[in-house]
Design a protein that fits this description.
Its cofactor is S-adenosyl-L-methionine; Mg(2+); [4Fe-4S] cluster. This protein is α/β, with parallel strands linked by helices and 223 residues long. 24% of the residues lie in helices and 23% in strands.
Length: 223
């Protein structure tokens, strides 16, 4: 299995349940979902003209559309060669579930790492059984994708982007449709740190015993 890698960098997880945890982020290139507020638009297309050698990806973080193709073996070798301190791997995008992530997450877990993926929920999730799956549901976006029922069922955490009351109503409908035995952690994430969205999220988190995902990295101005 080979993956189109946009960047690999070490930082603190800024979102969801693992906020504050040191993590290595592996960003994969490619996403057809088309969210209007997307802050990683440079990952949308996987064009041949943007393919670069691995040396141009390693240690370089930034909003560039470039990518290199790496195998599971190459990624495991790089991630475990001693340069990183974290043992928590976050596979994000783009949309990482365009790819079969089971070989990579299983291989990293064999090395003693914990894996997490962040997905829009529009595609089937293929990971190791113990990988933490964060679904940030993206409905009604320009790409025209529906939420994938199996992805929602696999979610350990639902991190819901919120700007308006309608988003809260949509989230409640989504939760009501989940099987009763499935109760993922719910975190509200204010869209674009807008003050009104943040105030609404705080109010609703307290009312419903949900968590707030404030995107800590944006307040701290770190990657
Ligand atoms: S799913 Fe994520 S990467 Fe894709 S458009 Fe939406 S926010 Fe951007």
């Amino acid at each position: 299995m080979r993956y189109p890698v946009n960047e690999i960098f070490e930082t603190l997880q800024g979102e969801g349940v693992y906020t504050g945890v040191p993590a290595v982020f592996l960003r994969l290139q490619g996403c057809p979902v088309g969210c209007s507020w997307c802050d990683t638009r440079h990952t949308w297309q996987c064009l041949e003209q943007d393919r670069v050698p691995m040396q141009q990806i390693i240690g370089i973080s930034g909003d560039k559309a470039q990518w290199c193709e790496l195998s599971v073996e190459e990624l495991v070798a790089h991630l475990t060669d001693g340069r990183f301190h974290a043992r928590h791997l976050v596979i994000t995008g783009g949309e990482p579930c365009l790819y079969d992530l089971a070989p990579l997450t299983e291989a990293m877990e064999q090395q003693g790492w914990q894996c997490q993926i962040e997905t829009s929920g529009c595609f089937e999730v293929k990971t190791s059984d113990s990988c933490w799956v964060t679904v940030s549901p993206k409905e009604g976006m320009k790409g025209g994708y529906e939420l994938c029922a199996s992805a929602l069922k696999r979610a350990n955490e639902i991190k819901y982007p919120v700007a308006t009351e309608q988003h809260i109503a949509n989230l409640k409908a989504l939760l009501a449709a989940l099987p009763p035995e499935h109760s993922p952690v719910v975190a509200l994430q204010p869209i674009s740190q807008k003050p009104r969205a943040t105030a609404l999220c705080i109010e609703q988190c307290i009312k419903n015993n949900w968590r707030l995902s404030a995107q800590m990295h944006k307040y701290l101005a770190i990657d």
